[in-house]
Design goal:
Elements: E1 6-7, E2 11-19, E3 38-42, E4 45-48, H1 60-63, E5 72-83, E6 93-95, E7 99-103, E8 112-116, E9 124-128, E10 138-146, E11 153-162, E12 166-176, E13 181-188, E14 196-202, E15 212-227, H2 234-237, E16 243-248, H3 255-264, E17 267-270, H4 276-279, H5 282-285, H6 303-312, E18 316-323, H7 347-368, E19 373-380, H8 399-404, H9 408-419, E20 425-430, H10 436-451, E21 457-460, E22 463-465, H11 471-482, E23 487-496, H12 502-525, E24 529-535, H13 565-570
Parallel strand pairs: 16-17, 16-24, 18-19, 19-20, 20-21, 21-23, 22-23, 23-24
Antiparallel strand pairs: 1-5, 2-5, 3-4, 5-15, 6-9, 7-8, 8-15, 9-14, 10-13, 10-15, 11-12, 11-14
This protein binds ligand 9MR.
Ligand 9MR is lined by residues 271-272, 325-326, 431, 461, 492, 544.
Length: 579
C-alpha cells in the first residue's frame, strides 16, 4: 500500500496483447446454406425434407470467401487517478450535505475515507476529474466500500456527474453490512462533456442515510487498438431479406462504435432516449398550468442519436410511445405532482395528455428529421396474462390501464396514426411472444387493431437465453403471427450467456446460426413477412444484461468490439457447425 494521499498521473501501467484468433473450432463438413429444405423436429434438431429450397436470397456466396476469424486487440491501461487515503489529504469532497474525512479504518493499510452527515441518498463523496476524463474514451473504476450501521444489504453506486446535470452509471455493487465490498465498472465518456466528477453514493435502502467508507479508488483509461480484420457486413448479407438493426444509447456512439455500426447495420433504435422518462420535461410541465393537458417535452437526450443516424443515413425505429415502465408516475397525477400519494387524473385528461404527447413526439421527429424514423413501437408490453383482465392485458403495474382502462391501447394507435407521416409503420411490441397464452392474446389484440387499419406490424423482442425459448417455439410463433399478414420485426434480439469460455461462445454461435436459418427460411417461404431483425446492443460490455456482479455475453461483438463466434453464426458461416 502506497503511503501517499492521491496521485493523478499518466503512466501506461500495462500492455496486454490479446490474440483472439479462435483455433480448434470444429469444422462442419456440410454447408447448411446449400442444404435442401429443413424442418424442425425439436429445438436441437433440424431434419432434411429432401425438397429443394428457393434460391437463397441472403448474399451467401461471399461468406465463403471469409475464413472465420476474431481479429486482434492490444490493450493499454493508463492510471489517471488513484487514492488509497493513506495520506493526510484527498481530492475527494463531500457531495451535498455529506462530509468526508480520512479516518483510521481500512481494507488494507490503515486509513480510508469516511462519508457522513448525509441528508439525501445522492449525498456522498465526489472528486472532480474534468481534466482527466476525455470525451469518447473508456475508463475503468475500481474501489472498495464498507458500512457498519444500517440494513443488512445496501446498494452502492459510483457515477459520473456530467456537465452538472447528467448522472451516468460507472459501477455498482451490493454490499453486506460489515464487509468490505469491491465496486468496479466502466464507462465511455459521452462527447461534449465539459465537466465530469466521479462520485460514490448509496442506492435506495428504505431511505436510510447510512454513513459509509470508501478505500483504494483507482481510475484507469483503457486504450484498445482493435483490428477486426476483414469481416463481412450483416446488413449486406441480409440485404434482400430484411434490415439488420442495433439499439444504442447516447453514450454508446463514440467514433469507433459509429464506424462499426455504419459498416454492419441499416436500422438503429435508441435504447432509452425516446421513452417517456427521457422525453417528458418535468420542470417545464409544472412551470405553467397550460401544460396540464399538453405535457412539455424535451429531445436533448435523443438528439445525438438522431443526428448520427441522419448523417450516417441509417433509418431509425422509434421506441416507445406508450409503456407502463420508464414512464414517471407524475405523468398520471393531478398537477404533475411527484407526491407518492398524489391523486391520479381523470381518464379524459389522461387521454388528452396521451394525444398531445404522441403528437409532439411525432411532430418533433418528423419536422426535424423528416423520413428518418420509419417505424414506432406505439405500445410496448401491454399484455401480461393472469392479472384478471379478460383480454390478458397487464393490470397490476400499469397506470395506463388504471387511469384510462383497456382502451388506452387503441387510443394510442389512433393518435399515432393521426399524427404519423403516411409511410411510418406502427407496431405493437412485446417480450415472451413465443409463450402460447401470450401469443393468443397478442394476436387477438393486434387483429382488432388491424381490422381498424391502425397497425402495421408486431415487434417480437426476443430476449433469448441459451435454453429458452426453444427454437421450435420461436419458429411456430413466427408462423402464427405471420398468419396475420402484418410485418414482423425482431426488435430486441440478444442471447443471454453467463460464461465466456470458448466452448460456450461456440454454442451461442450455433444457436444464433440455427435461429437465423429459421428466420431466413420462414421469410423466404412467404409464411411471415419479417422486415427487420434488431440486436439489443452492439457489444457485450454495454448490454442491459451485463452487470459487474453478474457478467453476461449476449451479443455479437465483445467488449473490444471484436466479432465473436456469434457474429459468424448469424452470418451462417460454414465454419460454425449447427450442433
Ligand atoms: O436497454 C434498456 C435499459 O438500458 C434500461 O435500463 C431498461 C429499463 O427498463 O430498458 C432496457 O430496454 C428494454 C426495452 O425498452 C423494452 N424491452 C426490454 C428491454 C430490456 O430491459
Amino acid at each position: 500500500m502506497k503511503k501517499h494521499t492521491y496521485r493523478i498521473y499518466h503512466i501506461i501501467i500495462s500492455i496486454i496483447f490479446v490474440s483472439m484468433i479462435l483455433g480448434g473450432c470444429k469444422k462442419d463438413t456440410t454447408d447448411p446454406i446449400n442444404e435442401g429444405n429443413k424442418t424442425i423436429e425439436d429445438d436441437d434438431s433440424i431434419v432434411e425434407t429432401g425438397e429443394d429450397t428457393d434460391e437463397d436470397k441472403a448474399d451467401t456466396s461471399k461468406i465463403k470467401e471469409y475464413a472465420m476469424h476474431m481479429g486482434t486487440v492490444e490493450v493499454e491501461e493508463e492510471l489517471i487517478y488513484e487514492d488509497d487515503f493513506e495520506g493526510d489529504s484527498t481530492l475527494f469532497t463531500g457531495r451535498g450535505a455529506a462530509k468526508v474525512e480520512i479516518v483510521n479504518k481500512s481494507k488494507v493499510g490503515e486509513k480510508s475515507l469516511y462519508v457522513s452527515g448525509r441528508t439525501a441518498l445522492w449525498n456522498g463523496a465526489t472528486v472532480n476529474l474534468s481534466e482527466e476524463l476525455k470525451d469518447s474514451e473508456k475508463y475503468i473504476v475500481n474501489g472498495w466500500v464498507y458500512y457498519e450501521v444500517g440494513p443488512d444489504q445496501i446498494q452502492f453506486d459510483c457515477k459520473v456527474e456530467r456537465n452538472n446535470n447528467e448522472y451516468l452509471s460507472f459501477a455498482s455493487a451490493m454490499a453486506n453490512k460489515g464487509e468490505w465490498t469491491e465496486i468496479t465498472g466502466s464507462i465511455i465518456i459521452p462527447e461534449d462533456t465539459n465537466t465530469a466528477s466521479v462520485y460514490f453514493e448509496t442506492g435506495f435502502a428504505g431511505g436510510e442515510l447510512i454513513d459509509f467508507y470508501i478505500d483504494d479508488v483507482t481510475i484507469k483509461h483503457e486504450i484498445a487498438k482493435v483490428d477486426r480484420g476483414d469481416i463481412p457486413s450483416l446488413k449486406e448479407f441480409y440485404k434482400d431479406l430484411f434490415s439488420i438493426g442495433v439499439a444504442v444509447t447516447a453514450s454508446e456512439i463514440p467514433p469507433d462504435r459509429q464506424d462499426l455500426i455504419k459498416q454492419q447495420f441499416n436500422s438503429l433504435t435508441p435504447g432509452n432516449e425516446l421513452k417517456p422518462d427521457a422525453v417528458l420535461d418535468y420542470a417545464k410541465c409544472i412551470s405553467d398550468p397550460k401544460y396540464d393537458d399538453n405535457p412539455a417535452v424535451n429531445f436533448s437526450r435523443v438528439e445525438p442519436i438522431l443526428e448520427f443516424a441522419k448523417e450516417a443515413n441509417i433509418p431509425v425505429r422509434g421506441h416507445t410511445l406508450v409503456w407502463h415502465s420508464q414512464t414517471p408516475r407524475w405523468f398520471f397525477t393531478e398537477g404533475y405532482s411527484q407526491d407518492a400519494n398524489a391523486p391520479l387524473v381523470s381518464k379524459e385528461l389522461m387521454l388528452k395528455r396521451m394525444e398531445n404527447y404522441i403528437r409532439q413526439v411525432l411532430e418533433y421527429t418528423q419536422t426535424n428529421y423528416p423520413g428518418l424514423i420509419y417505424a414506432w413501437d406505439v405500445v410496448n408490453e401491454a399484455i401480461n396474462p393472469g392479472e384478471g383482465d379478460e383480454n390478458g392485458l397487464r393490470v397490476k403495474d400499469s397506470l395506463w390501464y388504471e387511469v384510462v382502462g383497456p382502451e388506452f391501447i387503441e387510443k394510442a394507435f389512433e393518435y399515432a396514426r393521426k399524427y404519423a407521416d403516411p409511410d411510418v409503420k406502427l407496431f405493437y411490441n412485446d417480450y415472451n411472444t413465443e409463450e402460447t397464452g401470450k401469443l393468443l392474446y397478442i394476436k387477438r389484440l393486434v387483429k382488432g387493431l388491424q381490422d381498424k387499419g391502425l397497425i402495421d406490424g408486431i415487434g417480437l423482442q426476443s430476449h433469448l437465453t441459451m435454453d429458452n425459448p426453444s427454437l421450435v417455439d420461436v419458429n411456430s410463433s413466427l408462423l402464427e403471427y405471420g398468419e396475420l399478414g402484418l410485418e414482423l420485426q425482431i426488435t430486441e434480439l440478444d442471447m443471454g450467456l453467463k460464461s465466456n469460455t470458448e466452448e460456450d461462445f461456440l454454442n451461442q454461435a450455433k444457436r444464433y446460426k440455427r435461429l437465423f436459418m429459421f428466420i431466413k427460411s420462414i421469410h423466404e417461404s412467404g409464411a411471415a413477412n419479417i422486415t427487420n431483425v434488431t440486436f439489443w446492443g452492439l457489444s457485450d460490455d454495454i448490454s442491459w444484461l451485463n452487470k459487474p456482479s453478474e457478467p453476461n455475453y449476449p451479443l455479437l461483438f465483445d467488449n473490444y468490439l471484436l466479432q465473436k463466434p456469434a457474429f459468424w453464426g448469424v452470418l451462417l458461416s460454414p465454419d460454425i457447425p449447427l450442433y
